[in-house]
Amino acid sequence: MTTDFTPFLAWLDDQYEEMLAKTIALAETNSGSLNADGVNRVREMLTEYCQVLEGEIEVLPVAPYQNLNANGEMESFPLGDALRIRKRPEAPLQIFFCGHMDTVFAKDSSFQQVRWLDEETLNGPGVADLKGGIMVMLKALEALERSPWADKIGWEILFNPDEEIGSPGSAPLIADAAKRVNLGMIYEPCFPDGNFAGERKGSGNFCVMVRGKAAHAGREHHLGRNAVRAMCDFVSELDDLNGQRPGVTINPGLIEGGGAVNIVPDLCIHRFNIRLVDPADEAWCLGQIDELLAKINARDGIGIELFGKFGRKPKVLSAANTKLFELARECGQSLGMDLQWLPTGGCCDGNNLAAAGIPNIDTLGVQGGKIHSSDEYLKVKSLNERAKLSALILFKLATSENLNWLEEN
Ligand SMILES: [Zn+2]
């Protein structure tokens, strides 16, 4: 068997125009996380783009997104369906590929079109996060399928509809895939300089609701129980937890409550985010919050309730994960790229996969930046550069004599 990868990598250079055209078509199809119709349109486009891979295609509905609104009512939003494509589930090495279809740009956002900033730089919604990455993934897999080493690797792709809201609906699908695979390749954009994200913090989004008692501020102020005041006390004590535990940060992000100033407010909602480095600190945070809640709940006429959870565990690098990064760095070197991996406070589906014990690289996507803003850009030459990187990783894995290191903790 030959191990000359060159012609199979060179083929990817000829794919540039197609990758670019499809990235633009995907970016100009709005797929804000709560735009289920738009996400489903992207899913249909991807179903067509994937035909050439000849895998088994499944459409998988996910649970609706639940969110407590400013009136204290739980609202439910339907999400687009996930798309799963599997091939060769009997092959000795099983790889999970993942990329999200949704973006942070809602249907009514003014940012819907791409435009060129210069010859190398394309500005557009989701061009880097993550639609360019989807094309990198698909072309790398196509390169594998065209190679003589394809039969060594079985794969499954998950295109999920809800990563930008924390993957609440698709998390069970990721956990399910983790039972079948040896490693993960996820196509979030890399850092602007090309480097990978290594360790990632864990994250939880929470919401607290205080209910008090309304009363006229002039005639019956003494009968009111002020929900805004109780929330202020909760928030200031919550914020005081910052600095008490290394690696734990708490960010009170939004407070909504009250109305006319002549009425004692009976409802207040507060949303906050917690990030942490050590998985064990989840319990510490929840314990501290419980104590604060109990104090507020003990007040006459005041009730406080907590919603939400830690949706993403910290991504801690196992020995296998470090070796996977080393393999990627080697592949990068032979393609003329100098790649490192750096810790980040951000989270993605790589957190979920690592929590399930699966080594993964989650920033195999394109080079770009300013993501989640209308300045989001893609360095277009990274489309085929990064597809070559992924393809070479796959070729090396497929032709490797020993993959026992993938099991190292
Ligand atoms: Zn993303």
Structure summarized in a few sentences:
With 409 residues, this protein is of the alpha+beta class. It is built from ten helices and 20 strands.
Task: Describe the structure in your own words.
The protein has 409 residues and is of the alpha+beta class. Helices cover 33% and strands 26% of the residues. The chain contains 10 helices and 20 strands. The protein has helices spanning 6-13, 16-27, 36-49, 127-146, 171-178, 227-239, 281-297, 319-334, 349-355, 382-399; strands spanning 56-60, 65-68, 74-77, 82-87, 93-100, 115-118, 121-123, 153-160, 183-186, 196-200, 202-211, 215-216, 249-257, 263-264, 267-276, 303-312, 341-344, 360-361, 368-369, 377-379. The strands form 6 sheets. The chain has a 6-stranded mixed sheet, with helices on both faces. β6 (115-118) and β7 (121-123) form a beta hairpin. α1 (6-13) packs across α4 (127-146) and α4 packs across α10 (382-399). It binds zinc ion. The site of zinc ion (ZN) has 5 residues, from α4.
- Helix vs. strand class: alpha+beta
Distance between the termini: 32 Å
Question: Can you count the beta strands?
Answer: 20
| Biggest sheet overview | 6 strands, mixed
Bound molecules: zinc ion
Order of helices and strands: HHHEEEEEEEHEHEEEEHEEEHEHEHEEEH
Keywords, please?
409 residues; six-stranded mixed beta sheet; four-stranded antiparallel beta sheet; 10 helices; 20 strands; elongated; binds zinc ion
Lay out the secondary structure.
Layout (H helix, E strand, L loop, with lengths): L5 H8 L2 H12 L8 H14 L6 E5 L4 E4 L5 E4 L4 E6 L5 E8 L14 E4 L2 E3 L3 H20 L6 E8 L10 H8 L4 E4 L9 E5 L1 E10 L3 E2 L10 H13 L9 E9 L5 E2 L2 E10 L4 H17 L5 E10 L6 H16 L6 E4 L4 H7 L4 E2 L6 E2 L7 E3 L2 H18 L10
Parallel strand pairs: 5-8, 5-9, 9-18, 10-17
Antiparallel strand pairs: 1-4, 2-3, 4-8, 6-7, 7-20, 11-15, 11-16, 12-14, 13-15, 19-20
Helix pairs in contact: 1-4, 1-10, 2-4, 4-10, 6-7, 8-10
Zinc ion (ZN) binds next to helix 4.
